[in-house]
Amino acid sequence: MSSVPWHDRSAESRVRQIKYTKLWKLAASKAVKAKMRASSAKWRKSHKEVCNAASKAYYYAHRSEMLARAKAWVRDNPIGVAAQKERARARRYGLTVKKLREFLKRRCEICGAKTGGRWGGLYVDHCHKRDVARGVLCGNCNSGLGFFKDDLKLLRSAVRYMRRAA
Questions:
Q1: Which of 44, 68, 74, 79 has the least CB density, counted as fewest CB within 10 Å?
Q2: 65 in a structural domain
Q3: Residue 84 falls within a domain, yes or no?
Q4: Of the residues 71, 86, 120, the one at which a domain ends
Q5: Residues 123, 126: Cα–Cα separation, whole Å
């Protein structure tokens, strides 16, 4: 592969690409395809700058088409978009989608609410230092912990204040 877009390459280069594509289609065995994939990945890894430049050039040359295609996909696949968001949310906290769903079936770990108060859903509470899931909170409890910046000293101080003021 070259850093030059396919339509600006020499005829010889295009012929090589066509041959590779035909070889790929003809390669019946999984072993041959695996070998071709590995070879291609190795080349891309050793030529990152070239690949990145080619990708960037292609993107800028076809930006409007790519954005239109992406918008159309989002519009036409609401279930796919929801699944992507769910996978991204699970991955953010180091969970599987199944584990995330189990988490969200629980009640708020502080107040016991089944829903998230004025914001609706439940939230995955996580450690901001390690980005590890700790539990599930409703919107109010999640915001409360956020306002206290997950600082136990501040929370203890707030409890002392509430006891004195009661």
A1: 79
A2: yes
A3: no
A4: 71
A5: 9
Q: List Cα–Cα distances, 139 to 23, 62, 111, in angstroms.
A: 56, 42, 11
Q: Are residues 111 and 161 in the same domain?
A: yes
pTM comes to: 0.56
Cβ neighbours of 15 (radius 10 Å): 11
How many domains is the chain partitioned into structurally? 2
Q: What Å distances lie between residue 129 and 45, 53, 149, CA to CA?
A: 32, 35, 11
* CA 19 distance to own-chain centroid: 35
pLDDT in tens, the chain (166 residues): 455 555 555 666 666 666 667 676 676 677 777 888 888 889 889 999 988 999 999 999 999 999 999 999 999 999 999 999 999 989 988 889 999 888 888 888 998 888 765 556 788 888 877 878 888 998 888 888 889 988 899 999 999 999 998 7
The residues facing 125 across adjacent strands are 135
Q: Are residues 112 and 55 in the same domain?
A: no
For residues 67 and 69, give the distance between their C-alpha atoms in angstroms, rounded to a whole number: 5
User: What is the rounded CA–CA span in Å between residue 166 and residue 156?
Assistant: 15
Give φ, ψ of 71 to 5 degrees. Answer: -60, -40
The answer to whether 14 touches 1, Cβ cutoff 8 Å, is no
